[in-house]
Design goal:
Order of helices and strands: HHHHEEHEEEE
Oligomer: single chain
Number of domains: 2
Structural class: alpha+beta
Helix content: 40-55%
Number of helices: 5
Length: about 170
């Protein structure tokens, strides 16, 4: 709920920029949430709420009596909401989160398939052998690979139409 309120505050701060408000809200929501669903829902909540406030202010406070004004207002609001959801989705799917700790490198990203995730993680590593692989149903897997002096542990699962990957790369201590 706190993240949705942050997205709402950004959406209200930029509501006066007709089309770019959706882009800004969508990009901000994708930085708040690391899941596609959370990012899209946060963005949708912020954009819808800001549009409702914008329409209410326009209707009850400003009272601009222009013929044909409301269809244009609704169109601009719908365009902003659509752009917000679009940018939240694609920014979340196309970005990676990387954390460097004293012991390991931790990554989170989306891939189109499990094979793409594996090739992304082991592309620049030589001599990789699968040490352990566990399957948890059809759409969840946990894999540990040894690549020389490096161990790559990752977990992958279906999230929406993509595969979410959480990986940890650390030194082999054996």
């Amino acid at each position: 709920m706190r993240k949705a309120l942050k997205a709402l505050s950004v959406a209200l701060a930029v509501w006066w920029i007709p089309v770019l408000n959706g882009v800004i809200t969508g990009l901000y929501s994708s930085t708040l949430e690391r899941t596609v669903r959370g990012s899209v829902l946060t963005s949708l909540f912020g954009s819808l709420s800001a549009s409702a406030v914008y329409i209410a202010v326009d209707t009850f406070v400003l009272r601009i009596p222009l013929i044909g004004h409301y269809p244009l207002l609704l169109f601009i609001s719908a365009l902003g909401i659509s752009l917000s959801v679009y940018f939240a989705y694609f920014s979340t799917v196309r970005s990676a989160t990387i954390r460097l700790t004293t012991e390991a490198l931790e990554l989170e990203f989306y891939a189109d398939s499990l094979e793409e995730a594996e090739s992304t993680l082991t592309r620049d590593l030589a001599d990789c052998k699968t040490r352990e692989m566990r399957l948890f149903g059809e759409d969840r897997a946990s894999v540990i690979k040894e690549c020389g002096r490096v161990v790559v542990e990752y977990e992958a699962w279906k999230e929406g139409g993509k595969v979410k990957v959480r990986a940890r790369v650390h030194e082999n201590r054996l």
